[in-house]
Write the structure tokens for this entry.
Amino acid sequence: METNSWTWRTPAVTVVAPVAWGSTYVVTENFLPPDRPLFSAAVRALPIGLVIVAARGQLPRGSWWWKSLVLGTCNMGLFFALLFTAAYRLPGGLASTVTAMSPLAVMLIAAVLIRERATIAGIGGGIVGVAGVALLVLRSDAAIDPIGLLAAIGAVLVSGIGFVLVKRWERPTDLITVTGWQLTAAGLVLVPIALLVEGRPPHVDGTNVMAYVYLGTIGTGLAYVCWFHGLSRMPAGSTALVGLVNPVVGTALGVAVMHEAFGPAQLLGVVLVLGGVLAGQPAAVSTLRRLVRDRTQGRAQNASTLWVGPDTINSSECEIEVSGRA
């Protein structure tokens, strides 16, 4: 496991993942075959995973055969299957609100599995973020389907376990190679599930192929490399909070591309989500503490200076002068 980074560079790299994932909604809605979520998930994971493994020329060794399978299943394979089940059986707003609880779940799982203490700022950021996502996407007419709700909760828990295990199990080689192992394992898990549930693969045209290439390379390969980069350097809860940028990007693209409605409630939701994300970042807490410390020191320095007309006299100099005269 790598050392935690308290700068802005790591969150800036990590946020590439939810930004890419946020574009998935628009791409799926407009450029992929309809009603084939599991097939699409398998195509997202398996080809790019095989390409990475072939390019890196390294296979897992020892325990990393089963660890890659566990991580790939939790982070991508089973997670995708549960997420798509929730998306099809629940209104999008309700599904997004449930999955927005992922940061809080990750903090709890991290406390149990790796003894990582959740900060007050992180917990507060998670609660504010959930409220923001609810304002952003939840609608009053949302109907609750029990199976869909359980699938959404399962997606949160299984991905939370996977994220924490990424931190617990020190990887034996570079990040890209390990990501390739996980994506390949996820694809191998998803292919038989897709065939069993959805049947034969659908017909795809050139537009579908280009969309799958984008989702595989940018929305999956690059996204997960950036995500695991954050997990290896930041607390698990802080990384999970960055994921709340996903519905913000999805909403923005929905407004820009699909002309969806956007009002004051959604604007407040965006503010709350981004505020929650920032509140839970170690870099933000460190910056705030530094600003408070500098401000406090500046006030103390000003208080120790006497202003006499155009001249300034330091209080310590006055004490020396007084003591000398005595």
Remarks:
- The CA atoms of residues 2 and 232 lie 6 Å apart.
- The first helix runs from residue 9 to 14.
- The radius of gyration is 25 Å.
